[in-house]
Structure to design on (67 residues):
């Protein structure tokens, strides 16, 4: 059980840090968001875990409502 909690903690830390890094490039995020409205966009990742990777975080960010 402790290993699962550790992985969950590491995932949350990764998500927070990667989101902050992406938000530093808001112009590119907005460009991607615009592309997603009109075209199919494929997010590629190399992690083995389909549920915990950079593409998941990017998709979450792109899916958020614009403020």
């Amino acid at each position: 059980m402790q290993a699962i909690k550790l992985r969950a903690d590491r995932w949350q830390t990764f998500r927070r840090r990667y989101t902050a890094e992406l938000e530093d490039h808001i112009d590119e995020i907005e460009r991607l968001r615009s592309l997603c409205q009109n075209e199919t966009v494929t997010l590629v990742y190399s992690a083995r875990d389909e549920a915990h990777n950079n593409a998941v975080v990017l998709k979450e960010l792109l899916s958020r409502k614009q403020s």
Q: What stands out?
A: Residues 2-63 form one domain. The two ends are 39 Å apart (CA to CA).
